[in-house]
Structures are given as structure tokens and as C-alpha cells.
Amino acid sequence: MVRTVFAAFLQSYRPGVTFVRSPDRGATWSTPIAFTQPHTALAWNDRPSLAISPTGRDVYIAFNHSESWIVASHDGGRTFGTPVQTSHDRRYYFHSAGAVAPDGSVTFAAQAYAQTYRGDVIVDAIHSSDGGATWQTVRVDVGREPPGCRGVPGCYLGFLGPEAGLASDARGMLLMAYNINERPRGPQRLFVRTSTDGVTWSARAEISGAGARVNKTFPAVAAGSGAGDFRVVWMDDRTGAWDTWYRRFANGSWTAPVRLSNRHAGAPYQSPLGFAFPYGDYLGVTVDARGQTHAIWGAGPNYNGPGGTWYTRGR
Description:
This protein is mainly β. It has one domain (86-314): Neuraminidase. It is built from no helices and 25 strands. Strands 16, 17, 18, 19 and 20 form a five-stranded antiparallel sheet that branches. It has a four-stranded antiparallel sheet with strand order 4-5-6-7, with no helix packed on it. Strands 8-9-10-11 form a four-stranded antiparallel sheet, with no helix packed on it. The protein is globular. The two termini are 23 Å apart.
């Protein structure tokens, strides 16, 4: 059993993405490793996404410097190689999830926006089968210009735009869940695709269980211990407020959507309908050794806050 804890986080844009590891479940931590390189192409960076192999030996961190960059470790995060630039266009990349399959191949989900956030948004899978030496970028889908925030204080164009969750099951099946809109500024829809190699993806299937006029965003995916067991969480505004929702894929079918954010009180932005607005593009889900699902998200009155962090667990 891997007992090491790995963490990647942002310390402003400089030193930027920072990595630490704990060999004793968080009692002590390693000296932080940063990946900025002053006076080079990586003078700053942003938005880390972490992927760990089942053994804990292979550690990958994707981040951006406008372009997409990925760095790899093959000694459990003690040392890292040179970051590899995987994009060479003029788009701004946001990595949102990564997964290492049992065969050692690694895939990240990323979204490529125009620098202005206007126009189409590309949903990509970035895949390596040689330990991160080389990377292949595959276009999974394309969304139109994201919807606006309808006057929410502090919110910017692109905040409710496409994002993707990704996980690998015990046999190497990948499931990606992502939101896109099919007309400019129109409502977002939530789709899933699967892949056995990170390069070829199935036809998309819609899973939100809500109408086409509802915005869906910030999906996250986790895999259970069995083959074909995936848990998906996301946010949408079907009630007239925002809520966090959950579905599980097991035994070849999806469970009905379950509303996780069902507390009517506890904060001024909570109501029987849900919460006022997502507090940051932060939503996470994992599955423990007993098969229990753990979900966490941010909720608030608007983009500026002050908001809070909410957590729940269940099957």
C-alpha cells in the first residue's frame, strides 16, 4: 500500500506551482520543489494538475505558462526532469485532471481558450506512453464561446466555460466528463467519453439528467476499485440556484442524479434551492478503500465571496 501523500499547489505566479511529498501520511513534509525558471520561458506558471501512478513511483504535474507544460518524476517525487512544453499555439491552457493507467501511460485533460476567452474552446486529452518523454495532444471536443456570469460581481467571461474531469479504472479504462455549449454564450451541457488508450475516444453521451437550458460546469471524476466503476460530480443551476450533483456508473449503467448540496442553511448564501454561486472553479471527488465517495466544493454569494468549502461522503 502506498502511504506517501503528494501535493501540488500554487504560490502566486512566482514561484508558482510547488510540489511537496510526505512519506508518513502528512506528519512530515519534504522541501518544496518549484518549477519556475527565472529569465527563461518559465518565468511564471499557474494551474497545477497532479497525476500519480498506482505504485506512487511516477509523478506527473501539468501546469501552464499560457502554453501547456508537463513535468515528470520517476522516483516518487524526490526529483523531477525538465518540464516539457506540449502546446505550440497561441491559446491559453487550463489542465483540470490527470490519470496514470495500470500500464504506466498517463493522460491529462486540458481546455484551450483564446487569450480573450472569446470564441471556441477546445477540450483536449494530452497523452504519453513513454514516461513523459513525448506527448500527443488529441482533440476530444469543441465548445462555443462560454456563457457569461449574468452580472455576478467579480466574475469574468470564461469562468463558466468548459472544464473536464478524468480518471482511470483498475483495467486502464479512462472516463472523461466535460461541459461544453453548442452555441455561443448558450447553456452548458455535460458529456462523458471513454478510452482504452488515451488517444481514441468513444462517442459522447450526455449524463447530467437536466434540461438543455441548464448550465453545467466544473465536473470531476474518480474511479472505484472495480472495473467500470466511475463517480462523477458537477455543478448546475437547474433549481434556479446552484447545486452540486453526483452520478455513479457501475454494472454498465448510470445511477439517477443525486443532489449533494442539500443543506438549506449554515451560510447566508444557502437556500432550499441551493447556493448562490460557485466559489471558485474548485470541485473534487475521490473514492476510499471501502468504496465510499468523498466530494468537496466551494460555494458562495458570488465570485468575490466570502464563501466557504463544503464536504460530504456517501456511496
